[in-house]
From TrEMBL:
GO molecular function: transmembrane transporter activity
Protein name per UniProt: Putative MFS transporter
Gene3D superfamilies reported in the protein's UniProt record: MFS general substrate transporter like domains
This protein's UniProt keywords: Membrane, Transmembrane, Transmembrane helix, Transport
Protein's cellular compartments: Cell membrane
Organism: Kitasatospora viridis
Chain residue ranges for the region called Disordered: 451-474
One GO term describing the cellular component: plasma membrane
Length: 474
């Protein structure tokens, strides 16, 4: 039996876990805030800088392109040099770029700053979620990893609230303050992250045995050996080079790699476009224009995205990861198809349909970082999270760039039908490849796809002999 299941998987949930979960939520919250506040800032930025439709699209997509580069690069580095090393540096970069946004005078400066912002945000995902996953008890893992996406939507809702206040107080000329305001959030999370520990699993795999054992003793009050934390190849899968991209595409893991990247892409491409250009979408359905109603409508949709995550969190622990993601994708198609087939729907009905889509997105949302953290071993876990993030941001960047062009070119109806089609692809990918990891220890859920995954043994229940174990698949 791997020591990781016996010690960390079954450790009691304590204030240490709560503080670590809060610290790790900084990246997702900042992501939601930064990617959403620009949609409000564009209301004033566009006329002041004389932006064209193509330039508006480029600004909307710049951070997402940066996330594509940053996710792929920093995921590998996180597995090679550790989760803690970049844990503070990325927030400092985000703060500096946020402040720098206040002084921009041309479109290319904004694009460059938002590209760097995207890289720094993407760096935080593999750092924070892999660190959190490697400290969490199995019974709390799905819930707390899923709550990281709730932080994303909390950031989006906060962005629209702050944007609305700036518009009311300072008018459209306050867009510079909106872009700079994310620096305040960076300072808050820099304080919260002080003293956050490295992953003992990563330390043990890299020969830093004394540190790994001491961290478990200090934060969990348990005794464990480094050999137990490392596990054995038979239990934790084959030994892989840290940060190996090649391992992601080996016969054992490529199906999981494709699944995590594709379902993530199919979910966030419509989502990011909707949040970035929510006011423009609602305006296409006749929502009163200007600076207030469309912003409040998009803020409401963001709030419903957040609320939809709570029943999904219960569903992944009660019914399992696989049925939750399949049914969510299936139901998400309905409101998008409704809007596509009725492009002249009244604004109130359009807002209701978009809210329904937002609520139903909860299933894939809470599994965005749960699945890649559970399906890959410690040596390539952050690499997998970074790769899935990068792939998803390809779709998000393309969707964000094309959405305003599609609205002006083919209209709202075909645009919504294209979003419904992409969501249908996510459904097919989930039906074909989604696995069940509920109640499975982190070391066993990460066993290569050719080997069985088993429920995590508890302290009261001995491990089941391997010959009797069954694949953790719905």
């Amino acid at each position: 039996m791997g020591g990781m299941s016996a010690i960390i998987d079954n450790a009691p949930y304590t204030s240490f876990h709560r503080r670590l979960a809060l610290a790790c939520s900084g990246g997702p919250l900042l992501d939601g805030y930064i990617l959403s506040v620009v949609g409000v800032a564009l209301i004033g930025m566009t006329p002041e800088l004389g932006l064209s439709t193509a330039e508006v699209s480029l600004i909307g997509a710049a951070a997402l392109i940066g996330m594509f580069v940053g996710g792929a690069l920093f995921g590998m580095l996180t597995d090679k040099i550790g989760r803690e090393v970049m844990y503070t540096a990325d927030l400092l970069v985000i703060a500096a770029c946020s402040v720098g946004s206040f002084w921009v005078t041309d479109v290319w400066a904004i694009v460059a700053l938002r590209f760097v912002l995207g890289m720094a945000i993407a760096a935080d995902y593999p750092i924070a979620t892999s660190l959190l996953a490697e400290w969490l008890p199995v019974k709390d893992r799905g819930r707390l990893l899923g709550k990281q996406i709730i932080a994303w939507y909390a950031g989006a809702v906060l962005a629209f609230g702050v944007g609305y206040l700036f518009l009311r107080i300072g008018g459209t000329g306050s867009w510079r303050w909106m872009l700079a305001s994310s620096a305040v959030l960076c300072l808050f999370f820099l304080v919260v992250r002080r003293g956050s520990p490295e992953s003992p699993l990563w330390l043990a795999q890299h020969g830093r045995d004394r540190e790994a054992v001491e961290l478990v003793r200090r934060h969990l009050g348990r005794e464990v050996t480094a050999e137990e934390l490392r596990g054995s190849p038979a239990e934790g899968g084959e030994r892989l080079d840290a940060g190996s991209v090649r391992a992601l595409f080996s016969p054992a893991y490529r199906r999981r790699t494709m699944f995590c990247g594709l379902f993530f892409l199919c979910q966030v491409a419509p989502l990011f476009a909707m949040l970035t250009f929510g006011p423009a979408i609602l305006g296409s359905f006749g929502m009163p224009g200007g600076t207030v109603m469309e912003t409040l409508g998009t803020g409401l949709i963001s709030l419903v995205f957040l609320l939809g995550c709570y029943p999904a969190l219960r569903a992944i622990d009660r019914h399992g990861r696989r049925p939750t993601i399949i049914w969510s994708f299936a139901l998400m198609i309905v409101p998008l198809a409704f809007l596509g087939l009725w492009p002249t729907a009244p604004a109130v009905l359009a807002l209701f349909a978009l809210c329904a889509y937002a609520f139903l997105c909860g299933g894939p949302n809470v599994l965005d970082w749960t699945y890649p953290n559970e399906l890959f071993p410690t040596s390539i876990r952050a690499t997998a999270v970074g790769f899935a993030t990068s792939v998803s941001r390809i779709g998000a960047a393309v969707g964000t760039y094309l959405l305003p062009l599609a609205l002006s070119g083919v209209g709202i109806g075909p645009t919504m039908l294209m979003a419904a089609g992409l969501t249908a692809v996510g459904l097919l990918v989930s039906v074909r490849w989604a696995e069940e990891t509920r109640g499975v220890g982190l070391d066993q859920s990460a066993v290569a796809a050719t080997a069985p995954a088993v429920p995590a043994p508890t302290e009261r229940q001995p491990a089941v002999p391997r010959a009797a174990r069954s694949v953790g698949r719905a």
